[in-house]
Fold this sequence. Notes:
The chain has 100 residues and is mainly α. The chain has three helices and no strands. The model has no long low-confidence stretch (mean pLDDT 83).
Amino acid sequence: MKPTAILGVVIGVALQGAMLFAQNPSGNPGKDQQKHREMMPMHEKMIEEQKAQDAEIDKLLATMNTATGEQRIDAIIAVLNKLVEQRKVMNAKIAAHLDR
């Protein structure tokens, strides 16, 4: 057998093995689906919160982009402060979720 053919067989076997390891180890796909359904409302709430945060940032950006002089600097500071605030809230929520 040529070395390239052997290499092809080895790669094929490795990929098949990887597919087996990637499968659900619990052997209970119904439980995973139930857990997914239970988490959907939380995910939807997170998406809505992100949309609200994006709207806040868009409003501040519009103000910043139309401002001039000293007002523009104040508007830039407002955008940065809001981004930092949102990030801190997000990090706190993630930490609370991981501590469960």
